[in-house]
Amino acid sequence: MARLHYGMITSLDGYAVAADGDLGRGAEDEEVHAFIGDAFRDVGTFLYGRRMYETMLFWETVHEQPDVPQHILDYARDWRAAEKVVFSTRLERVASECTRVVRSFEPEAVRRLKDASPHDLSIDGPTLAARAIRAGLVDEYHLFMTTSVVGGGTRFFPDGVRLDLELVEQRAFANGLLYARYRAR
Fold first, then answer.
1. SS3 sequence, the chain?
2. Average pLDDT by consecutive 10-residue portion of the chain (185 residues)?
3. Rounded to two decimals, what is the model's pTM?
């Protein structure tokens, strides 16, 4: 059975989306970006809500731009090759290869997808991930914490959910970003 990963860049105080839109410094670093590419290279399917999918569409065409660094090209190649499932009632058509729209998030359907997949899956975006967390579907959590405290926004972990996690990997980057990977117990 494949594992479902949830990973995002967060503020130091735990917000995946800042109220003012800026999570602070840390993610734009080449070392960090190459690490993220390596950490998610084996993901065969990305699960998105509409807004996160529209944000990630950058990776569909970035290789067409001049002078793109190799670590960006590598991530873009892996992203384009992966399956993408977008949970949306409003998205009319997709703008990327290997992508399909599903009109509602059904935990049992995601469970079956995990059971049938030969590769791990990733769920991205705190709103969609909260539904998967509440349903007990997420196996691993990847937090990339910036050096900023933003004071509000959308939290990485949903309110009202208790999780007992095991720290399985951690790393500090030269730019101050902290990485922590946790596994559900």
1. CCCEEEEEEECCCCEEEECCCCCCCCCCCHHHHHHHHHHCCCEEEEEEEHHHHHHHCHHHHHHHCCCCCHHHHHHHHHHHHCEEEEECCCCCCCCCCCEEEECCCCHHHHHHHHHHCCCEEEEECHHHHHHHHHCCCCCEEEEEECCCCCCCEEECCCCCCCCCEEEEEEEECCCCCEEEEEEEC
2. 95 94 78 92 96 95 94 94 97 95 97 97 97 98 95 96 97 95 96
3. 0.94
